[in-house]
Amino acid sequence: MEMDLIQIKSLKTYFFQGKGLLSKLFGQGLKIVHAVDGVSLTIKKGHTFGIVGESGCGKSTLCNTIFRLVEPLEGKIIFQGRDVVKMDQKNLREFRQKAQMIFQDQFGCLNPRRTAGQIIAEPLTIHQADNRGKEDISLKVAELLEAVNLDAEAAAKFPHEFSGGQARRIGVARAIALNPDFIIADEPTSGLDISTAATILNLMQDLQERLDLTYLWISHNLNQVKYMSDDIAIMYLGKIVETGTTADVFENLAHPYSQALISVIPQIRKKDGKSKIILEGEIPSPITPPSGCRFRTRCKYASKKCKEEEPALIDLGSGHYAACHLLGSN
Amino acid sequence: MIRRKGREVSNILLDVWNLCVEYNLAGKRMQALDDVSFKVKKGEVLGVAGESGCGKSTLGLAIIRLLPSVGEIADGSIRFMGRNLVKLSEQQMDEEIRGKHIAMIFQNPQSALNPVFKIETQMIDILRFQSKHRKSKAKMSRKELRQQAIQQLKETGIADPAERISNYPFEFSGGMKQRVIIAMALSSETSLLIADEPTTALDVTIEAQINKLIDKLAAEYGTSILYITHNLGVLSEMANRIMIMYAGRIFEMGRTQSVLGDPRHPYSAALLESLPGHYTKGKRLLSIPGFVPPLDQLPSGCSFHPRCPFAEEICRQQVPTLNEVSNGHWSACLLDQQRGRQKWKWI
User: Span A28-34, mean pLDDT?
Assistant: First the structure.
């Protein structure tokens, strides 16, 4: 039976930018960045949930919020029956054993003054998993290195001695060190060559199968998200505009933004003669998002209703949802 | 029309012959480009693909003669509009070639613009420099130059160019900055544009806008483009011909459809297999074993042989050269050349 591992309910994360004390006290000149604005999603155990969208759509903030690296304004994050938002430090520490993150910048997330072995051992020492002794830990490190296809000698090397793909694998080894259930992968192959990226994708799939992992997969590479994910959500300016199983969404694109986004993926062999939908302009600022539907400023179908009323997610059957007024009217 | 050795070669704009580039790092000489020869026709888009460290960017920099100080062109010629660029002085390059007939745009638009000057100042500087070295036209006033700059911005699709021109770079988004760079790079005289990963730092929707713009300008001005990228999908849509590079050498070259549709070199075939584009989950992607060799440790024979499961003794000994395998399709695989067409089954 398929179980839900994590449920996110109307999650909101805003950032407040003020110029000084006055704005903090009286709210004058205060700018609110609507980074994540009412996102709900459910990730099933053992599945990969992909999130796509352009830069600035709130994908990374969503990850950071789920991990409580950023505090949400409101909403719930139910993980294995408990609300992460309400957890105190002690519970949060437990949660962070079960949930791990793989970061975008493969070198930036590794301490340059520590060896790969020390880096991978760190979560083990911090969480005192099974009260391991020193020897146990070095055995476990060797095991983890093997799991990500690195030599045992790699443990003594420093991050700068590794190539981009190897450094990324150290990040993966650290993430799986505590036998987590859930891994957030934020652009796990950005900056890697085609063939190296393929290695990481293969590795992540093997680990998922072997360790029964659930992934939240963030990328702006649509081909990759399509390839990796069971379920998918397309985000635009802090909101989900379309979500469903990957097969459903790609088969039957409902939202005009999704249609445009998918049509511009550079493809080697185009199967269909569909032409590209090239959007005008750029994603608006999340400080002053457009009223009504946030996509309307770039949407060729936009009407008066889109300006006045915000579209809700409409059920298109079998878990496929899209937020567009055009869909509600027929 | 260009005449060379009495022969009419009017439709060839750039003719690179046996180009060798060496880097001299800490007393070690390393061959970054080895025997690279190709031609670019007028109005043609030639795509250059390969993994990082294969010499794509070095090639672009060598043509416009902007190699870092440790690099030098050791051998070969770069014929462009009837002149050999290798033989020109720095001053000649500055006054007659760079920014005038050959322009280059880079991956990161942020670092190509000076953050402390307005767009206006930076664009007018370039236009003034160009007009100074244009013999036929009279000197233009600042006002005229500004008008010209506004016109250029307009052509690259920037809304409100007359207003936006007095902004600073930080007031522009990444896609807008790349448009400004393209506006600065392209004048009606530009006949070759070297685009080094121009959309890598941009989102897909913006990437599509920029590629459409490059395409449009190329069609309007008849500009030839050397489009350097690792994204084969982009090349499949943009390029007339494709060149696959590895460890400083050309491995395969030909029309886009033939190279991507029927790759003759195992390396090209492998690159295509490692893309997740047309697979669904569960199907394993190909990852080529090993890595691109560092320049100071190039293997003997075919530089790809340590990573190639099909390699035989001959590949370790003999350096393959490009051979025409079918009309206009060149490949540098010894096995393919000796035994005829091979099917490279990587998975």
Answer: 79
Sequence-ordered strand ranges (E) for chain B: 3-4, 7-8, 12-25, 28-41, 45-49, 71-80, 83-84, 102-105, 192-196, 224-228, 241-246, 249-255, 323-326, 329-331
Q: Rounded distance, CA B55 to CA A193, Å?
A: 14
Return left, alpha or beta for A214; rule: phi > 0 is left, psi -120 to 50 is alpha, else beta.
beta
What residues of chain A lie within 8 A of the CB of B288, using their CB? 195
Give the amino acid at A318: S
How much is the pLDDT for A171?
93
- Report the distance separating Cα A218 and Cα A199, nearest Å: 17
Q: Is A42 exposed, middle or buried (0-12, 13-18, 19+ CB in 10 A)?
A: middle
Alpha-carbon gap, residue A4 to A77, rounded angstroms: 12
CA-based nearest residue in chain B for residue A263 = B205
Q: Does B212 touch chain A (CB under 8 A)?
A: yes
- B156-199 pLDDT, tens digit each: 888 889 989 999 998 888 888 988 998 888 776 789 999 999 98
Say yes or no: ipTM exceeds 0.85. no
Number of other residues whose CB lies within 10 A of the CB of residue A94 = 12
Cβ-based neighbour number of residue A17 at 10 Å: 11
